[in-house]
Design a protein that fits this description.
8 strands; 6-stranded parallel beta sheet; two-stranded antiparallel ribbon; 184 residues; alpha/beta; homodimer
């Protein structure tokens, strides 16, 4: 079984016109994805944001639920929110995992070469270096990040004939963790 | 293939001490679960709330994204948010599905008799009456609702040995729709 972590990227990501932007941190992303990360046995959730004030904001949320009054009120949140690690850039998350770590990217749209979730599940169950599964906020990761990835995961397809593929990043991360790492 | 809808119940649900309470509507529940509902081909998402002002609030959110300025800014939200139906009580959602509709409840904890997700998937793929899959907010549905259910679905289990089972309702709904209805 390989060590797996996740990253939520706020820059560089796309906006709906395809421009490269920096998105703001969403409080419920931190909670929902950290809870899913903890449930599925991932090691950490890296929150990637280049703006110090935004990283500090996420740090205060983490503190509230791990050592502050939130931790006393809802202790179940503590082990999940402890998984949060705030970093400036994706490279910092990769560096934290150690040399040889693999970058696995995700997107909502079909790309040329991508790994099926069943094949991804098999790879994670075997031996190998740590893996960082990366999600983009906004309209998704920029092409340059997907291009440097060791693996690009297939999108979660809808059975709708109109090709609707607009899950929230919170839902998409939960579904992907379940497909890659869920108890069967 | 059976017709499937979902309901998100704000009353009667449990708080963390096990008391029966009414929870407030959370904006991102509406967005995330409606987007998952639409992606997985469910017909409607019933928001069950006994307080008129709360139903009106959800109605305004729906309006903003289906006919208001939100719909012009992010048109992808429109078909998802159109699935929202605000009702006073769970019985109103059941009545909307027609007589003979089945009530399927969910919870995060293991109950005596429950249907596995694989078996639920098979049942939904066959013929039969419409199904309403019900999620509780807060600390989950009250026992009386689970007792009257035609089917109680098994919980989403973690592979953690400590039995941690604290997914957000947004994540749990997404995972369950994927297991029951996702493209394989």
């Amino acid at each position: 079984m390989r060590r797996v972590s996740a990253a939520l990227v706020h820059h560089p990501v796309l906006d709906r016109q395809g421009a490269v932007v920096t998105t703001a941190i969403t409080n419920l992303d931190l909670h929902d994805i950290a809870r899913s990360v903890h449930t599925y046995g991932l090691e950490a959730l890296y929150i990637v944001h280049p703006v110090a004030a935004q990283r500090e904001l996420a740090g205060k949320v983490k503190e509230h639920w791990t050592t502050g009054s939130g931790a006393r009120r809802i202790p179940d949140r503590t082990p999940a929110l402890q998984k949060l690690q705030m970093v400036d850039a994706l490279d910092d998350a990769m560096a934290a995992l150690g040399s040889g770590a693999e970058l696995w990217t995700t997107s909502a749209s079909v790309r040329g070469e991508s790994l099926s979730h069943a094949a991804g599940r098999e790879r994670l169950a075997g031996d190998g270096p740590p893996v960082l599964i990366v999600f983009g906020t906004g309209w998704g990761l920029v092409e340059a990040v997907c291009e440097r990835a060791d693996v690009h995961l297939a999108p979660i397809l809808s059975q709708r004939s109109d090709g609707y593929n607009h899950l929230s990043v919170r839902a998409a991360a939960a579904i992907l963790f379940d497909r890659l790492l869920g108890v069967r």
